[in-house]
Amino acid sequence: MPDKTIICKDCNSEFIFTEGEQAFYQEKGFQNEPQRCPSCRQARKQQRRNFNGRGNRSFGDNREFNNKW
Ligand SMILES: [Zn+2]
Q1: What does the pLDDT read at residue 3?
Q2: Ligand 1 mean position to 46 CA, how many Å?
Q3: Cα of 25 to ligand 1 centre, how many Å?
Q4: Nearest CA to 48 among 36, 62, 27, 64?
Q5: pTM
Q6: What's the gap in Å between 36 CA and the centre of ligand 1?
Q7: How far does the centroid of ligand 1 lie from the alpha carbon of residue 28, in Å?
Q8: 48-57: pLDDT as tens digits
Q9: Cα dist from 12 to 8, 9, 28, 36, 55, whole Å
Q10: CA 7 to ligand 1 centroid distance, Å
Q11: 58: CA distance to ligand 1 center in Å?
Q12: Domain range holding 32?
């Protein structure tokens, strides 16, 4: 599989979904391609961590994040 260029949903910048990452996704059984560039993904991960620190109010939402990641 060749590298893929994807437009980030959050910041609209292009990023590369590399062959290695595609293999990783397949290995994990993810059906979807990533929608966000690595830095936005990182930012969201950190948000999630902060969120969890404050309580479990939106556990369902967090699960959805994981699926869409
Ligand atoms: Zn982005």
Answers
A1: 96
A2: 14
A3: 19
A4: 62
A5: 0.62
A6: 5
A7: 22
A8: 887 666 555 5
A9: 5, 6, 26, 9, 31
A10: 8
A11: 23
A12: 4-68
Q: How many domains does the chain have?
A: 1
Q: What is the pLDDT of residue 48?
A: 83
From CA 39, how far away is CA 48, in angstroms rounded? 14
Which residue, chain included where needed, has tokens 């990641």?
Answer: 69
Which tokens in the block code for residue 28? 């994990």
Q: How far is the CA of 35 from the centre of ligand 1 (A)?
A: 8
SS3 state of residue 7: strand
| pLDDT tens digits, one per residue of 8-60 | 999 999 999 999 999 999 999 999 899 999 999 999 999 888 766 655 555 55
